[in-house]
Amino acid sequence: MRRGGDSGGGGPDPNPGTREWTVMVYMAADNNLAVQGILDLDEMEDAGVTGAVSVVTQAEYNPDALAQYQCDASCW
């Protein structure tokens, strides 16, 4: 699992311009799938986007499930 800020991108583009597509992902991983949810977000980041695509995510996690893997808020 990545630690916050490891993407190397320095955050979102403050002026992304017009995109042909926007992909929105809502992830309810506040259960036993919390760790897999973080890994899924890592995969989306690794896939990258083009100038024509924006990806927006919102995710929720169960802190108790993440604690089993020694993962806290710094994991995302």
**Sequence of secondary-structure elements:** EHEH
Determine the mean pLDDT. 76
Q: Quick one: overall form?
A: elongated
| Major sheet summary line | 2 strands, parallel
Describe this structure in words.
- With 76 residues, the protein is of the alpha+beta class.
- It has one domain (21-75).
- The chain contains two helices and two strands.
- The protein has helices at residues 34-47, 63-67; strands spanning 21-29, 53-61.
Quick description:
The chain is of the alpha+beta class and 76 residues long.
Which features characterize this protein?
disordered N terminus; alpha+beta; single chain; 76 residues
Write the layout of secondary structure elements.
Elements: E1 21-29, H1 34-47, E2 53-61, H2 63-67
Parallel strand pairs: 1-2
